[in-house]
Amino acid sequence: MNKSDKEPLIKAASIASLFVSSTLIIIKYYGWAETDSISLLGSLADSLMDFLASIFVFIAISFSLLPADEKYRFGYGKSEGLVVFIQSLLIGVSGLYVFSEAIQRFIHPIKINQPSVAVWIIVVSIVLSIALVLFQKYVVKISKSKAIESDQYHYLTDLYINISVLISILISGWTTYLFVDSLIGLIIAVFVIYSAVNLLKKSFKILLDQELPSSDRDQIKAIALTHPEVLGFHDLRTRDAGRNYVIQFHLELDPQMSLLHSHEIIEQVMEKVIDAFPDAEIIVHSDPLGVEEERDPFE
User: Could you list the residue ranges that cross the membrane (predicted)?
Assistant: First the structure.
């Protein structure tokens, strides 16, 4: 599937995310108002942050899909990294809020009102979350979108939260174990904060140009050296630019080779690397074998 075919899928995933998150906010707010459940409040806070994050994702995707231009010649893919960073902050704040509320309710427990209402609301939430996560998983597999991947991650978190809330309501609503609602709220809060930290780390990888994994780097080197006229390989540098990779390296060629033939070899190597990394931007420099030059100190 080429790049133009992926774009409608990415946009559809972001719109579906907005629809599901807004629906969850409405029904969970109603459920919290009716039941006064602290675990349901935690789930509501998480859904509210999901909605705000989904808005940022939609905006970022609109930017990241823009083609490269004169001012931004590598394109706008890194806007996804910025969105993941903002998402991590929003999710972290929601986790801290729920943690605070759960502590207060743990000290002063209150019985859940109308637990059957809360159960139906959470069941609907679980079904919607499963449908969205499965669709997002398909889109990420096709498009490699970092923004949709991070969105999928916290909707998967939301799914786990909804399941734990359902268990909490079933216990607290029909037994005398009122502390379970607060306990589940605390667990949810810790899980949400942990998720926020992971997203923050992921955003730094994109924004700070972290190298690709060693397995990918080894694969790039192996591809280049399979060409019979490539005599050496050095100064491999890679970076994750959001929706695409940037890969650059030097090839060592016969110093007696013509410039035209050198160009042909580079094109052949680039074609093979692009086959392995379809969304990558490839930059290759040729060096005459045996010429002394300053090398990458991290090679």
Answer: 12-31, 51-69, 81-99, 119-139, 159-177, 183-200
- How far apart (Å, rounded) are the C-alpha atoms in residues 94 and 139? 27
Distance between CA 136 and CA 126 in Å, rounded? 15
* 142 pLDDT higher than 70: yes
Q: Residue 156's pLDDT is what?
A: 81
- Give the three-state DSSP class for 18: helix
- Taking only the tens place, the pLDDT of each residue in 12-58 is 888 888 888 899 899 989 988 888 887 788 788 778 877 877 787 77
Give me the sheet containing 245-253, strands edge to edge. Answer: 232-240, 245-253, 281-288
With a cut of 80, say whether residue 292 has pLDDT above it: no
Q: Which is more confident, 239 or 111?
A: 239
* Identity of residue 187: I
Start-end ranges of CATH 1.20.1510.10 in the chain?
3-207
> Which residue ranges does the chain devote to CATH 3.30.70.1350?
214-288
In whole angstroms, how far apart are CA 38 and each of 33, 61, 100, 204? Answer: 11, 34, 11, 33
Distances (CA, A) of 13 to 8, 18, 36, 279, 287: 9, 9, 33, 20, 45
Superfamily of domain 3-207 in the CATH hierarchy: Cation efflux protein transmembrane domain (1.20.1510.10)
* Paired residues of 284 in beta bridges: 249
Kindly report the number of other CB atoms within 10 A of residue 272's CB atom: 13
Residue 243 makes CB contacts below 8 A (sequence gap 6+) with 64, 75, 77, 80, 143, 144, 145, 146, 279
CA neighbours closer than 13 Å in the CB half-sphere of residue 220: 30
165-194 pLDDT, tens per residue? Answer: 888 888 877 777 778 877 887 887 888 788
CA atoms of 37 and 173, how far apart (whole Å): 9
In the numeric block, the tokens 């700070």 are attached to 208
